[in-house]
Design a protein that fits this description.
Number of domains of chain B: 3
CATH topology of the largest domain in chain B: FAD/NAD(P)-binding domain
Low-confidence stretches of chain B: none
CATH architecture of the largest domain in chain B: 3-Layer(bba) Sandwich
Oligomer: heterodimer
Radius of gyration of chain A: 20 Å
Largest sheet of chain B: 7 strands, mixed
Mean pLDDT of chain B: 94
CATH superfamily of the largest domain in chain A: CPE0013-like
Number of helices of chain A: 3
Order of helices and strands of chain A: EEEHEEHEEHEEE
CATH architecture of the largest domain in chain A: Roll
Distance between the termini of chain A: 59 Å
Number of strands of chain B: 30
Number of domains of chain A: 2
Distance between the termini of chain B: 57 Å
Chain lengths: ~130, ~425
């Protein structure tokens, strides 16, 4: 028997969880069905959307001179929720990744990261254009 | 000096400013956004985490994604923007609002506008605001400053971190720094409950085994050149138990202790400020006491969600366009905060159309009812499964709710009281 708080909505139901087998649990204390879905996913296959940044490289010297603003980091995220146990490995991968500018929002930087089927994508466009 | 003329000048190029300007453009007014950073987007550009846009775009986006989608809309509508330009003063000269700014590219910039939309956002409360005793070593940052250093500039503020205050930005930074190789030794909250969302408590603290010290006060920051530790003292039944103080060694302290609307420009212009929100008092069309000066977004009141900011800002843009076209409400009813309501925004309603009102509860309550009353008569009531101070509420009041029962015209003195019971 374990306890957890449902985070699906602000009500924050206190859930009691009974493990039936390796792959089965029973949930009580939830005021709606989303509580059960949340508890099952969180206990059996916990996932998180991972957001971090990568080093930005390749900004042309001219572009840097034209704009006072030269971004050093490119924000990235997993295109979908990512298995929690593989997050440390993914962060290492992202920390060592260099992204050559320009980059477009949504551009896939790593396809099928660590064999999960989930891509790592850029979350902003950096165009190196003239400042407004 | 660069001289410009626009129907509307929008101060601030974040989610609020861009949305207001886009709305003004779509209604045929020329609009200039003035932004102090080198690019549009505002604070969203450093909020690389997920969870923005569920209402506005029906998907979960990171801050930069949300900002750029709003920017694309705004650019498509034909707004103009002046980035890298800091507004120093807004003055009234010869029937116009004149905005003075400085820019390293253009020098002094003078913008003449018929209407001004204030969209400067808010800033963080800092150590001075909460008066933490101790020495003045380096290594004390506000959470948002640390967020900028990490996510945009690419620097780590320190390795061993204690976070004071359990606001969402602090919680998000606990996760961000944990993922960046730092060790977070604890989050210290003076209140008996966390001020951030439960979701963030679970995903930003529990996922990393970070201790949350509720009902604890930071009674000292120690260190000569660099922070060496913080002294934490439990609060029991209102008494500070110095006999139970303990120290957490660390090299960095982050403060996540609330946000304040940034209204220096507004105050200098003579805009009256509501002490409950620290933002301007606004009428039913989000106009301040200065005719033609509107306010929206976090400069008006601190919002929970950027989605609400964008929505409110669009209304401000539309109201500014109406004002530029010479329209004004026939009459307005004053709104009054009733029981358990911290504040209401706006503070007046126009009984001839639908009004959207944002409000904040003072209490945590399950099974609450949100009530609007005129002269004690309930004109609207909405059931709320759960209310709490950190969760903004809204309701709409329209001509049907605000009409007098015997078809008399509501008198100017009529008030609409909004309460949580």
């Amino acid at each position: 028997m374990s306890e957890m708080i449902c985070i699906t909505c602000p009500l924050g139901c206190h859930l009691s969880i009974q493990r039936i087998s390796e792959t089965e649990i029973s949930v009580t204390g939830n005021r709606c069905s989303r509580g059960e879905t949340y508890a099952k996913e969180e206990l059996l296959f916990p996932k998180r959307v991972v957001t971090t940044t990568c080093r930005a490289v390749g900004l042309p010297a001219g572009a840097q001179a034209a704009s006072l603003y030269a971004p050093r980091r490119v924000p990235v995220r997993t295109a979908d929720a990512f298995p929690k146990e593989k997050i440390p490995e993914l962060l290492k991968l992202a920390a060592n990744l260099e992204v050559t500018l320009p980059v477009r929002r949504g551009e896939v930087l790593v396809r099928d990261a660590l064999g999960t089927g989930i891509d790592l994508v850029a979350t902003r466009t950096i165009s190196c254009g003239e400042p407004s | 000096m660069k001289q410009l003329k626009f129907d509307a000048a929008v101060i601030g190029g974040g989610a609020a400013g861009m949305s207001a300007a886009a709305e003004l453009r779509s209604r045929g007014c020329s609009a200039l956004v003035i932004e102090r950073e080198e690019e549009l987007g505002g604070i969203l550009m450093q909020c690389i985490h997920n969870g923005f846009g569920l209402i506005e775009f029906n998907e979960e986006l990171s801050g930069p994604e949300f900002a750029q989608k709003i920017e694309e809309r705004a650019v498509a509508s034909g707004i103009e923007a002046l980035c890298g330009t800091t507004v120093l003063e807004i003055r009234q000269e010869g029937g116009f609002h004149v905005v003075y700014g400085v820019s390293s590219r253009h020098g002094v910039v003078r913008v003449e506008a018929k209407a001004v939309v204030l969209a400067m956002g808010c800033r963080e409360r800092n150590r001075g605001n909460i008066r933490i005793p101790g020495s003045r070593p380096s290594g004390v940052y506000t959470a948002g400053l640390a967020q900028r250093l990490v996510n945009i500039d690419g620097y780590i503020p320190g390795k061993d971190v204690v976070i004071i205050g359990s606001g969402d930005i602090g919680l998000i930074m606990a996760r961000r720094l944990s993922w960046s190789g730092c060790k977070i030794h604890g989050v210290v909250e003076i209140l008996p409950y966390p001020s951030g969302l439960t979701r963030n408590i679970v995903q930003c603290l529990e996922d990393f085994g970070i201790p949350l010290y509720l009902s604890h006060l930071t009674t000292n920051i120690r260190g000569k050149d660099r922070v060496q530790g913080v002294e934490i003292t439990p609060v029991e039944n209102g008494a500070v138990r110095y006999d139970k103080s303990f120290e957490i060694p660390c090299d960095t302290v982050l403060l996540s202790v609330g946000l304040v609307p940034e209204n220096e420009l507004s105050r200098n212009l003579g805009v009256e400020i509501n002490p409950a929100t620290n933002g301007p008092w606004v009428d039913s069309r989000l106009m301040t006491n200065i005719p033609g000066v509107f306010a929206c977004g976090n400069v008006l009141h601190v919002h929970d969600l950027v989605d609400y900011v964008a929505e409110e800002a669009r209304r401000a843009g539309a109201f500014a366009a109406d004002w530029l076209a010479g329209a004004s409400p026939q009459r307005e009813l004053r709104l009054k905060t009733g029981s358990n309501v911290r504040y209401l925004n706006p503070s007046k309603v126009d009984p001839d159309r639908e009004n959207k009102i944002y409000l904040r509860s003072m209490v945590v309550k399950n099974g609450a009812v949100l009530e609007a009353r005129i002269d004690g008569r309930v004109v609207k009531s909405i059931k709320k499964a759960h209310v709490q101070p950190s969760e903004m509420l809204f309701l709409t009041l329209g001509p049907k709710d605000l009409a007098e029962p015997d078809q008399r015209t509501a008198s100017q003195s009529a008030q609409v009281e909004i309460a949580i019971v």
